[in-house]
Amino acid sequence: MKRLIAAILAAVLIVSAFAACSKQNKEVSEKNEALSEIGFTIDSHYENMDESSVRAYEKLCNAVVLGDNSVKFNVSMLEDVNKLFFTSFPLHALVEKLTVSGDSSGVDITYKNPLEKHKALVSEFYAKINEIKEQCEFGKVNADRYIFNVYTYITANFKLDSSSLTVFDTVIRGKGHSSALASLFEFLVLQGGAKACHALGASSILSYVQFKDEWYYFNPAADIEKNQGKALIGFAMQQSRTGDMDFLFTDQTEIPKVSDKKFDQLKNSLSFSKDGDAIKVICNNDETYLLEFN
Hints:
Number of strands: 12
Low-confidence stretches: 4-34
Strand content: 15-25%
Shape: globular
Distance between the termini: 76 Å
Radius of gyration: 23 Å
Largest sheet: 4 strands, antiparallel
Order of helices and strands: HHEHEEHHEHEHEEEHEEEE
Strand order of the largest sheet: 8-7-6-9
Helix content: 40-55%
Structural class: alpha+beta
């Protein structure tokens, strides 16, 4: 009888262990699937950078996602890798420092948090990014409509807060500095396959994005601050709508002037709503403007 009971208990333990293992494997699989949906994108200004530097940057990003303490690549490329890492990868906010390894075969990575907390923060960030992408109809609409969806999602769901200076903190807290909101907009646009760059001005930081085959400035913080995301005053702006400010890329080279006035009516926008596949914009001069994405 004792042997029978022991055998039954052993079977129960095996089944329980198998179930726990299966559950754990499923959770790991789901987490890995969520992480794999996020691409390691770069500011479009650097799209012609040497391919080996881009690959090294991607290796560094992957190491940070996994919480690895080191990554190997040719450190002669470190200047370019750092440029991409600190301008294009939101999780740089979790890194305390990068140090060239003792044998100069790569870099050692020091994190701000213990490994388990680091991994939890990585997962939390990517889960929120995937949720935003889903809300913005990622993969279901064309690139221009996705840009519009991302812009209006940010202006409707995020708040201005000068204490959140990074994309990571902004996503986790739901509020951020105007420059961090611009960076978040660019990151999400790049995730959708469109082109976006960080634009540094004398008194403000905007996004420089290709929309409907032309380049324009975008300022989500303006619509958050002035109308709580109900209008589009900062959407697809040419130079005069920025106050005729000059802007630089993050490497301090000048951004070409934007002269196309196709969307100038949006500076007078009061509200917008869906109109079939288009967006109907109500302006303060009693005019209606139809924003189409075909």
